[in-house]
Amino acid sequence: MTRLSLFNVVSLTFGFVFLYVPMLILVIYSFNKSKLVTVWAGFSTKWYSELLANDAFLDAAWVTVKVAVLSSSIATVLGTMAAYVLVRGGRFFGRTLFSGMIYAPLVMPEVITGLSLLLLFIGMGLDRGVLTIVLAHTTFSMCFVSVVVSSRLMTFDNSLEEAALDLGASPLDAFRLVTLPIIAPAVISGWLLAFTLSLDDLVIASFTSGPSATTLPMKIWSSVRLGVSPEINALSTILIAMVTIGVVAASLASKQAALRAKRDEQKAARMT
């Protein structure tokens, strides 16, 4: 077992302190009784009550969750299909162009992506709102799903799918009953990644949103420009708690799915 050197320990310590101590301070001051975010005046939960009574934040949160669920679900389907074609499709005409178009949003600046999508929606005559944000988030998050799923498909044992085809299953049934359950942890990871990217996006949503659709990052940004309020700290604390619970639950679910897929592979190998 390789032991960490003193330099690695110190680097990791400073890195985690630099990353998580500000979050801890934010959580602590979200329970501050004073309206001044830098002066501690006692413990209180009144800012959480005021946050729940703020219709503007609640509407923005609902739009954000709705956009994140829709865009991540669509991106997962399209990204999985794209990854399957790239890995299993072999060499075909236009493969290089197709893969380049899939992976281009990975390196494209968000400002360029947002501006180009804005011009596209204006040219198509689409009114900016929830639909345009969903389309924009699907566009840039699909490539991340494709990368995650394709990395799992590259290590997939094709003999399992071939055995299902030899037993009389159709290609669709073989994919649905054999391939998809095995790559499910990667698909779930891709969905969570797309959901997270959509949840915290600010730049692209600013270009593609309209007056009737304001996401939570946009609302927080516009509020912070006028000064940090205790309600912002309370909202950020709730988001941190939601992300923490989601990450832990997803890790446990992904681990269970991976163990189940490994057992299925071993069972299929014994049967063949």
CATH topology: MetI-like fold
What percent of residues are in strands? under 5%
**CATH level 1 name:** Mainly Alpha
Approximate shape: globular
CATH architecture, by name, is: Orthogonal Bundle
SSE order and pairing:
Layout: H1 6-29, H2 46-52, H3 55-88, H4 95-107, H5 110-124, H6 130-153, H7 158-166, H8 171-199, H9 203-208, H10 216-224, H11 230-271
Helix pairs in contact: 1-11, 2-11, 3-6, 3-8, 3-10, 4-6, 6-8, 7-8, 8-11
3D structure, described in words:
The chain is mainly alpha-helical and 272 residues long. The protein has one domain: Orthogonal Bundle (MetI-like fold). The chain contains 11 helices and no strands. The longest helix has 42 residues, at 230-271. The radius of gyration is 23 Å and the shape is globular.
Q: Which key features would you list for this structure?
A:
single chain, 272 residues, mainly alpha, MetI-like fold
